[in-house]
Amino acid sequence: MLATIMSTTDGLAFISAAAIGRDILARLSGRSGGGDIRRFTRRGVLLTFAVSIAAAIVFPSVVQLWYVIGTLFIPALLLPLLSTYQERMRLPPSATLLSMGLGFSLSFCSFLWGAFHGGAGSPRYLFGIEPMYLGLAGSAFPYIVHLWKRREPKGSPRGAATGA
């Protein structure tokens, strides 16, 4: 049983390290040569293990850890992922990044608010709303604006009457 758990842990850690090294660090630096990728992947391993250890210390319960991960990252990723399946819902890359940033930021801020304003392990969230819902609302905002702009007839100013 322990071998299965360790094998899964190693595999996921190295996949995460490769993704961080190749997809994030290498692209941010603008270098993607073979030696550079290896160095970035090594840095990704260190970053992955550091984040994993910190998460295990801060959230000793696996259930609590999954709750926090879901609360913070699902609002940032759900709508951009779903919009890839519907052509009219697709946003330009900058608006998609805005959607992801708003979803994560609102969830994170609401989560911190609840953690600092609650008592004895029971958070008191802003307006009594779970952070995931505020994040989903923030993530949906660019999509709502995008759909609203598509409904307007081309060439007509906002609020102008269309009559004769």
Portion in strands: under 5%
The radius of gyration over CA amounts to 21 Å
Mean pLDDT: 85
The tally of strands reads 0
Ends distance: 77 Å
Oligomer: single chain
Give the helices and strands as they follow along the chain. HHHHH
Helix content: over 70%
Query: Main beta sheet, described?
Result: none
- Structural class assignment: mainly alpha
Number of helical runs? Answer: 5
Unreliable spans are none
Note the overall shape. Answer: flat
In short:
This protein is mostly helical. Helices cover 74% and strands 0% of the residues.
Question: How would you describe what is shown here?
Answer:
- The structure is a single chain.
- This protein has 164 residues and is mainly alpha-helical.
- Helix content is 74%, strand content 0%.
- The chain is built from 5 helices and no strands.
- Helix 1 crosses helix 2 (34-58) and helix 4 packs antiparallel against helix 5.
- The longest helix is centred in the N-terminal third of the chain and has 28 residues, at 2-29.
- The chain starts with a helix and ends in a 13-residue tail after the last helix.
- The mean pLDDT is 85.
